[in-house]
Amino acid sequence: MKYFSTRGGSDETLTFEETVLTGLAPNGGLYIPETIPSLPQNWQNEWMEYSFQDLSLEILSLYISPNEISREELQTIIRKSYESFRDDQVTPLKKLDASTYVLELFHGPTYAFKDVALQLLGNLFEFFLLRRNARKAQTETPEKLTVVGATSGDTGSAAIYGLRGKANVSIFILHPKGKVSPIQEAQMTTVADSNVHNLAVKGTFDDCQDIVKELFADKEFNAKHRLGAVNSINWARILAQTVYYFLSYFHLRKQLSSSSSFEIQYVVPTGNFGDILAGYFAKRMGLPMGKLVVATNANDILARFWKSGKYEKSDSTSPSADGDATEPAGGASDGKQADGVKETLSPAMDILVSSNFERLLWYLAYENTSNGQGVLERRTQACKTLESWMASVKSDGRVQVPTEVLTAARRDFIAEKAVDMQILQAIKAHFLAEPSYIADPHTAVGLHVARAIAKQNPENTVQIVLSTAHPAKFSEAVTLALTSQPSFEFDSVLPEEFRGLLERERRVIDVERPESALVKAVIETQAIGGKGQAEVATASV
Ligand SMILES: *Cc1c(COP(=O)(O)O)cnc(C)c1O
């Protein structure tokens, strides 16, 4: 299996290894597989009793050539990646009522769904680098990877836990000093591994992001340190996430009597479109399901797309939208303006544009090419179309896709939003329901949307809402929703690991001004092989 960029460009296709180590294509595109593999005959019976790890091995093997990673090697990587999960099933399915289930994705080390993918990504990075270095002569400098990222909270800790202690990889995570939640800050900065570096930047999240962009754009610095990204554009993250769609399908089949027919509707709290895109791949591979439901918060660019076919940063139909939409959002100003990201109770979904949506747009563009052409011609055509759409988003802040494309998008997806008040109501309603369930505010977006669309569903529909974070991670929203409930005690949802976390020793480097030069200086001294480090990590597999 080879991969290519959604924006075409180079005629070369990449191996899985190159795809994972490169992350974002040099032309700004995202990598997708040359074909979407179909499932082996008889998978429905053969995989029925498989564990998360067994399914992961089967599904990942369809996307990774065995001459790149052998089956045994892949099995080891998968086993290591999910050892850190607290639940035997990795992603257990819990029943709320006859037609509603939650698929809990938060049993990894940082209590957020991103662990499912980042644990695997860390082990893939390590595997590739150790293998490359083993092939080198002793006199050659070993290859290394320097992961740099900005976080407002959630991604940072999942990335750190994915990469801590990995050979030949160092990780630098920038956060705005004093502006991430205390629990999240503690989760990141109490990790003691020597390859983990937290930088507390005096400035905003946008400052941190700008610095990271500057570092990546500096060709010399980038090449010297081989900068790597772990954000959700990395293909391996999408791939890792397809597995729980399959697992939940089998778990549901076992819970429902085998004679009853049902149609699954996955409801996915969505920000950058990575989680739900994995569901789209599962569907295209042949996993039986109804429509996938995109559940957004007040940052509803996707919900608006499915209404109008317009992919537009600011809502031009809303009376509150002021200013010229053609001005790139966040351009000159430093604050979060009417055109910018709205702060909500579900911060991990606060986005202006959804980076992975580009991958879906590519498939929609491909479908809309003329059938008369050969596959390669159609592919080139789709890349061209996609490139023009993305250029339009960049220059005008928006693009309108043709009607046929919107129709195609509606065949596989429904999209709805939930605002903060509805998030709070959903948390309360499910707390009071029987069985009582305490949802985090991201999961609550999904629960609200699931309820709102349920009446239009065919009778045999079973909704599976993806639960993306543990409620204790977002204590503010949960407490706000349940404060008037006498039977609610926040302490009861607090995991053991969170107790005493705030008092533990921190490792953090203060960056006094939001300047890329200061961050570069830290990386120069702290990265593997840098002046501050005596030796290159020599951990073995
Ligand atoms: C990242 C995240 C999401 C959004 O997932 P995407 O793949 O970006 O759509 C939802 N909930 C939580 C808790 C997250 O951390």
What does it look like?
With 541 residues, the protein is α/β, with parallel strands linked by helices. It is 41% helix and 13% strand. The strands form 4 sheets. Strands 3-4-14-9-10-13 form a 6-stranded mixed β-sheet. It has a 5-stranded parallel β-sheet with strand order 8-5-6-7-15, sandwiched between helices. A two-stranded antiparallel sheet has the order 1-2. Strand 3 (93-97) and strand 4 (100-104) form a beta hairpin. Helix 5 runs parallel beside helix 6 (154-163) and helix 13 (357-367) crosses helix 14. The longest helix is centred in the C-terminal third of the chain and has 22 residues, at 375-396. It is globular and about 65 Å long. The two termini are 25 Å apart. 46% of the residues are buried. Pyridoxal-5'-phosphate binds next to helix 11. This is Tryptophan synthase beta subunit-like PLP-dependent enzyme. It comes from Leucogyrophana mollusca.
